[in-house]
Each structure stands twice: as structure tokens, then as C-alpha cells.
Design brief:
- With 304 residues, this protein is of the alpha/beta class.
- The protein has ten helices and 14 strands.
Length: 304
């Protein structure tokens, strides 16, 4: 995996101009698009702003770059900010696409009925620790006890005598919501340091002895950190596909109503084999067609 891509901190990748230009000049299906076709024979032009989930950001950036190479007249800007920001910005019309790790129905203050869900991939999420931590596997109960503050030293879960430094994601993070839903199961997380992106968490955990947090699979290939097994199950693609690894989520790209113009063309490109069979697995995500189960907004899992 490209470490330069996954090492972006909190990041903003602006492939053309700044946020204000897009907020004022283009909404989903903007009339300034010269073409809405995504076929190879007709080039697409126009501006699209996609922001939100930092777990989805590495994939969205790569797909945007590839799309622009094929459509030089298109300007795709990808920004982070968290799933909450993505959903609120697309709802207000400030962005054409809101990237989210959670269903819009799970976010308070968002009218999901006005948003169109476009699932583009599946993301796995894993607990990660600084490489100095002498623990490679935890039970879900031990992991829950750490993040709720019941366990504060690694010696209590099989490691050396070392203080546990918990790093959490900020409120509004979809990655945090997925982790807490599947691990904490209704219990409250301990008050601790909070960070606003996968990239920032990756950097802090890698440089902080005794640190623990959680990251999207796309951020696991970095020096100074290691992913933990849970109940002896490895966080990998195969285990996500059949729900043996339960900490996963769909990557959603929401639009306000049906997309048109360059927004529709960009989203259509995500469903191509070039993206689903090449870029998605290359960057550590799981293709939708590879999943052996489905999950709804209430968390119910059904076998395909």
C-alpha cells in the first residue's frame, strides 16, 4: 500500500481550487457541467466537492485522480473532516458528495430521506497499538475495558508494566461510531485525547509508547504501529467478508437527491471494474461484490 497516501494527516487534498469556490459554484447536478456522460468517448467536465470520512479519503483521492486523468475538464476535490461533516455539508448543499462510514439514518440532525446513498466499498477497522506494546491479541471484553477506562496498564492484559494511552476519534467520526457500536456495545468511552482523522491517529499512535486506538484498514501499513487480533481473529479482508471480523462498515457517498452531471459520472466510475477490482483491494478496502453478508442501518447482518 502507498504509505504516502495513507499518511495524510487530517488532511485536505485539493486537486484543484479551494473549498469556497466549490461551495458557491456547484451543487450536485450543476448546470455548469458541459457533459454528464461517463463513457470513454465523451469527456466529462465540471466541478465536484466530496468531503467527510477520512477512512474513505485515500480511496476517494485515488479514484478522483484516475477519473480526472480520463476527463481533464473535470475538477474533483476530496477533503476529510469526518463523516458528520460530510453528511451535514451535503445536506446543506455546500458539497456535492458527503463521504460517510455510517448510514445517514444513524446521525442525529440529518434528514436521511433527502439524501441518496451510494455504497462504494467496505472498510474494515482494527484496534492498533504502538509497536512497543507486547500484546498481539485481546478479547473483545479486554478491549472494551481499555476504552472504558477499567483497565489502564498493559500488564493487566498480558503485556509489560506500562501505562495504556488511549487515543480516541472525535465525536462525529464515523470510524469512532463503528468501533464503539461493535466494541463498547452501549458503554461510554473514557475521557481521553481525541483526534479528528485516521491520519492523525496513525501518526500519534506510532510515536507514543503504550498508545492504543483504532484505524481503517487503509491506514494499517505504517511503521511504528501494529494491529491487534480480537478473540484470536485476524483483522483482514477474508474475515471481514464473512463477518468473522465484526468491525467493518460500508463506505457511503451521499448526494442530495439523485446526482447528475459530473457528480453522477464520478459516482458511476466507482462501480467500474477498474475501481472495484483494482483500486479498492489495492488500497486495503473490500469490494461490495466480495462480501458474503450484508448489514443494514440497525446493524442486522444477513448472509448473501
Amino acid at each position: 500500500m502507498n504509505k504516502t497516501v495513507v499518511g495524510i494527516v487530517g488532511g485536505v487534498v485539493v486537486i484543484a481550487a479551494g473549498f469556497a469556490l466549490y461551495a458557491n459554484s456547484n451543487h450536485s447536478g450543476s448546470s455548469d457541467a458541459k457533459s454528464s456522460s461517463s463513457t470513454s468517448s465523451t469527456k466529462v467536465s465540471g466541478k465536484v466537492l466530496a468531503l467527510g470520512s477520512t477512512a474513505l479519503q485515500p480511496l476517494a483521492e485515488q479514484v478522483a485522480s484516475s477519473f480526472q486523468e480520463k476527463n481533464p475538464g473535470a475538477t474533483i476535490t476530496v477533503q476529510g473532516g469526518g463523516s458528520g461533516a460530510g453528511l451535514s455539508q451535503v445536506s446543506s448543499g455546500s458539497a456535492q458528495i458527503g463521504n460517510s462510514d455510517v448510514f445517514a439514518e444513524e446521525k442525529s440532525g440529518v434528514d436521511a430521506s433527502k439524501l441518496k446513498d451510494h455504497k462504494v466499498a467496505v472498510v474494515g477497522i482494527a484496534p492498533v497499538v504502538n509497536s512497543d506494546v507486547q500484546v498481539s491479541s485481546l478479547s473483545k471484553e479486554q478491549l472494551r475495558d481499555i476504552f472504558t477506562g477499567k483497565v489502564t496498564n498493559w500488564k493487566d492484559v498480558g503485556g509489560k508494566d506500562e501505562k495504556i494511552v488511549v487515543i480516541n476519534r472525535a465525536t462525529g467520526s464515523g470510524t469512532r461510531a463503528v468501533f464503539e457500536k461493535n466494541v463498547l456495545e452501549g458503554q461510554s468511552a473514557v475521557n481521553t485525547t481525541e483526534q479528528d482523522s485516521n491520519g492523525t491517529v496513525q501518526k500519534i499512535v506510532s510515536t507514543t509508547p503504550g498508545a492504543i486506538s483504532y484505524l481503517a484498514f487503509a491506514y494499517l501499513d505504517a511503521s511504528g504501529i501494529k494491529a491487534l487480533n480480537i478473540d484470536k481473529v485476524t483483522p483482514d479482508k477474508k474475515n471481514v467478508e464473512d463477518n468473522s471480523w465484526p468491525i467493518w462498515a460500508y463506505e457511503h457517498m451521499y448526494t442530495k437527491g439523485e446526482p447528475t452531471g459530473p457528480t453522477k459520472a464520478f459516482l458511476d466510475y466507482f462501480s467500474t471494474s477498474e475501481v472495484q477490482k483494482t483500486l479498492v483491494p489495492k488500497l486495503g478496502y473490500i469490494g461490495l461484490t466480495d462480501m458474503k453478508v450484508t448489514r443494514d442501518s440497525l446493524g442486522k447482518v444477513t448472509k448473501n
